[in-house]
Specification:
This protein is α/β, with parallel strands linked by helices. The protein has ten helices and eleven strands. The protein has a six-stranded parallel beta sheet. It has a three-stranded parallel beta sheet with strand order 3-2-4, with helices on both faces. It has a two-stranded antiparallel ribbon with strand order 9-10.
């Protein structure tokens, strides 16, 4: 049994990014990230603060726009257009979720496809679907980097993705399919879920339900990737019952300290990649 340490892997990638950013700065290119935060969701505040902190550590310039429910969608769209036009900004992040009064998909559609470092735009999702990946969503990218670092083979293995969101489940499934995996997508309407998940060589879970996946859902020797983040009794836990599943899995990610750090560093890796493209142009 192995615990996959996402924080350790993210720190190694962080050091690689620092070297790349130093080389970029020698060419007078400073990677830039524009962040748009709408509302006052406590979790979003924490996520944005952590992203800005990591950007500062790496030497990535950040610009933060803050809005609340008193603002209009036009206010937010104008900020996006300003960032689109700013040559010093390589990536734009719209912190999700937005308050219910805003049409998130409509707002996201204004982000320049080349600065869509979250990979949520229609163009980048279309590239993914057609196996011509341009920018891959940060969480799926982080999971792929994690599996690669741990030398866990994707090609030819059966991966069960539990969760079908546009943020994780769907892009993750297609990215794995593009890499030769046999992929099954399950979700909250799937019947006989246990029978399906027990077929998985690699089980990835992103359903937002604390400790939902127990040992009964996992076959012996499976790799288990827990994307969930749930707060229970002032503790953060995943969608997988870690203590119960630990003894059956060959490798498993903890929560916290697993996929979370990989998501942040993969987002910033996308920003640095866009900055490298700017240098080449």
């Amino acid at each position: 049994m192995k615990i996959i340490d996402g924080k350790l892997i993210a720190n190694k990638i962080k050091e690689e990014l620092k070297e790349t950013i130093c080389l970029l700065k020698e060419k007078n290119i400073i990677p830039g990230l524009g962040i748009i935060l709408v509302g006052s969701d406590p979790a979003s505040e924490i996520y944005v603060r952590n992203k800005i902190k990591t950007c500062n550590e790496l030497g990535i310039c950040t610009v933060l726009y803050r809005f609340d429910e008193k603002n209009t969608e036009r206010d937010i769209i104008e900020a996006i257009q300003d960032l689109n036009a700013d040559d010093g900004i390589d990536g734009i992040l719209i912190q999700s979720p937005l308050p219910d009064c805003f049409d998130e998909a409509h707002i996201l559609s204004y982000v320049d496809k080349n600065k869509d470092v979250d990979g949520f735009g229609i163009y980048n999702l279309g590239c993914l679907l057609s196996n011509q990946e341009s920018i891959l969503s940060a969480t799926p990218l982080g999971i792929l980097k994690m599996l690669e670092y741990e030398n866990i083979e994707v090609e030819g293995n059966h991966v069960v993705m539990v969760g079908a969101s546009l943020i994780v489940g769907r892009p993750m499934a297609i990215a794995l399919l593009n890499r030769g995996a046999t992929v099954t997508i399950a979700h909250n309407k799937t019947k006989n879920l246990k029978e399906i998940t027990k077929q998985a060589d690699i089980l990835i879970v992103a359903i937002g339900h604390a400790k939902y996946i127990t040992e009964d859902y996992v076959k012996d020797g499976a790799v288990v990737i827990d994307v969930g983040t749930n707060r229970v009794d002032n503790h953060v836990v995943g969608d997988v019952d870690f203590d119960a599943v630990f003894k059956k899995a060959s490798a498993i990610t903890p929560v916290p300290g697993g996929v979370g750090p990989m998501t942040i560093i993969s987002l910033l890796s996308n920003v640095v990649d866009r900055a490298k493209e700017r240098m080449n142009k």
